[in-house]
């Protein structure tokens, strides 16, 4: 029986949606967003420490110095996940905790922390899913050029080997990079993320070295990890819809699709960089950093594609008159996020929005999964999905975050729809377990299904946490 048949048969009469047996239910976090303890046990600064401590870069001057203090509270946080019934946990390791200089000596205290975390997870029946790079490059490597330097890709593979040797016996799912689009374009072109550069040329060079680092790390992981370990990369593909069906708007959407989707996926799946992207970025970069043999390394087979989805975007041709609309959801940077796309603008759409200003539209998730399955035919997992809202704490301490519950319900129904259509989606990791440091937005945006009081570090499951717990425990999305 196929996965689709197994859920069709079991769909319940009252409108509940049953997920296939073995579907993985997880939550997701990232090291810099939750750990704190930035100068403890040998950890050195990452680019996000430098960036957040640079005045004007993060809202309110917030930093990840303490964050959700997870470094000290990881055991309680794992116990909390177990209470919710979550059976998988996607977290990232901090490179500068494990190899403080970015290359060279390993800091065993750093390894020990993740080793304890993994043991704690396994003791609670929670499957660890480890991401090696969620944006926190060791500052020393940035000082040598960061992702514009080819050597960073090589150092990344070395780091992957160190972590795999230490934890490969206990971690079954390994992700190389999280959302490399953000590292390259928000970090090196827009300037809204660390390292805060504003060069389209650097961003395109970073694209290649991130992909090369992924490929090199995948090869090291494959030889270091035991048979059966799975290797993935997580991307954040755009669902870019043209504002009208005019050929100019369709061409604008195609450019965004090129820079956010095909520039990553085509080389990963063996077809190299898309010709149209090479062409429209030619005035910005000559792509001379692509060397013979690199594309073969980048196309090293993976086992799973991680997909992060929050919202679609609507794209229109910009003719150069009037202000250029920039509702791409990534804020205003000093630089242009989209190299080679000065004839493109992003328009806002009416309807519900989250506290990030992102439109709520679960149909984009279904559309995206169908497209990825059709074009790349690889097993997938939703490695992030969730929403920020302005949570109110009721007098009794409860958090009735009905809008977040509604968002989750709609998106889980979209995942179920994809499964019913026979698309191979293995699991769902909700972003996020905890309220945390939301990058350039600091602590002002709360994505958690568990509230964190950043004064006391008290954790309180929100209604969305209780809702998700019900889904996870029963494997069923209940009707409204
Ligand atoms: C994604 C990031 C994650 C979090 C969510 C809201 O782009 O991977 O760390 O910030 O957005």
The beta-strand count equals 15
The ligands found in this model are: beta-D-fucopyranose
Shape assignment = globular
β-strand percent reads 5-15%
> What radius of gyration results from the CA coordinates?
21 Å
Helix content: 25-40%
List keywords for this structure.
alpha/beta, 8-stranded parallel barrel, globular, 40% helix
Question: Helix and strand layout, with pairings?
Answer:
Layout: H1 3-10, E1 17-18, E2 24-28, H2 31-34, H3 47-52, H4 70-84, E3 88-92, H5 95-98, H6 108-123, E4 127-133, H7 139-143, H8 150-167, E5 173-178, H9 180-190, H10 200-224, E6 230-235, E7 240-242, H11 247-268, H12 275-280, H13 294-298, E8 304-308, E9 313-317, E10 344-347, H14 363-376, E11 380-384, H15 402-420, E12 425-431, E13 450-453, E14 458-461, H16 463-474, E15 476-477
Parallel strand pairs: 2-3, 2-12, 3-4, 4-5, 5-6, 6-8, 7-9, 8-11, 11-12
Antiparallel strand pairs: 1-15, 9-10, 13-14
Helix pairs in contact: 4-6, 8-10, 9-10, 14-15, 15-16
This protein binds beta-D-fucopyranose (FCB).
């Amino acid at each position: 029986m196929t996965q689709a048949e197994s859920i069709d048969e079991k769909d319940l009469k009252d409108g509940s949606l049953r997920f296939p047996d073995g579907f993985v239910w997880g939550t997701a976090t990232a090291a810099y967003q939750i750990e704190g303890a930035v100068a403890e046990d040998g950890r050195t600064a990452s680019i996000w420490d430098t960036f957040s401590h640079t005045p004007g870069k993060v809202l309110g001057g917030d930093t990840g110095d303490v964050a959700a203090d997870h470094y000290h509270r990881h055991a309680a946080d794992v116990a909390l996940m177990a209470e919710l019934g979550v059976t998988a946990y996607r977290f990232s390791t901090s490179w500068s905790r494990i190899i403080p200089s970015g290359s060279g000596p390993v800091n065993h205290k750093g390894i020990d922390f993740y080793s304890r975390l993994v043991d704690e997870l396994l003791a609670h029946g929670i499957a660890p899913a480890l991401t090696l790079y969620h944006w926190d490059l060791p500052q020393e490597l940035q000082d040598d050029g960061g992702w514009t330097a080819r050597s960073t890709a090589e150092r990344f593979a070395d780091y992957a080997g160190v972590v795999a040797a230490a934890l490969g016996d206990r971690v079954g799912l390994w992700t190389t990079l999280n959302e490399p689009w953000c590292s390259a374009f928000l970090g090196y072109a827009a300037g809204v993320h660390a390292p805060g550069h504003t060069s389209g040329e650097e961003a395109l060079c970073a694209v290649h070295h991130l992909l090369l680092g992924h490929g090199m790390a995948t090869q090291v992981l494959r030889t270091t990890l035991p048979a059966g370990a799975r290797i993935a990369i997580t991307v954040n593909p755009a669902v870019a819809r043209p504002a009208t069906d005019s050929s100019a708007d369709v061409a604008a959407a195609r450019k965004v699709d090129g820079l956010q989707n095909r520039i990553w996926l085509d080389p990963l799946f063996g077809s190299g960089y898309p010709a149209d992207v090479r062409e429209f970025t030619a005035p910005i970069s000559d792509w001379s950093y692509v060397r013979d043999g690199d594309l073969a390394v980048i196309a090293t087979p993976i086992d799973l594609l991680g997909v992060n989805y929050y919202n679609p975007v609507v794209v229109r041709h910009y003719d150069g008159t009037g202000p250029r609309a920039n509702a791409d959801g990534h804020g205003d940077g000093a630089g242009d996020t989209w190299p080679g796309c000065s004839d493109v603008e992003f328009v806002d759409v009416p309807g519900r929005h989250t506290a990030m200003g992102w439109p709520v539209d679960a149909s984009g998730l279904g559309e995206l999964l169908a497209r990825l399955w059709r074009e790349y035919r690889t097993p997938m997992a939703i490695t992030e999905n969730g929403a920020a809202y302005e949570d109110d704490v009721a007098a009794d301490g409860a958090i009735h975050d009905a809008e977040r519950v509604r968002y989750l319900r709609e998106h889980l129904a979209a995942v179920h729809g994809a499964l019913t259509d026979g698309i191979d989606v293995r699991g769902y990791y909700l972003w996020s377990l905890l309220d945390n440091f939301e990058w350039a937005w600091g602590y002002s945006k709360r994505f958690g299904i568990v509230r964190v009081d950043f004064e006391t570090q008290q954790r309180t499951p929100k209604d969305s946490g209780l809702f998700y717990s019900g889904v996870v425990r029963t494997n069923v999305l209940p009707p409204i």
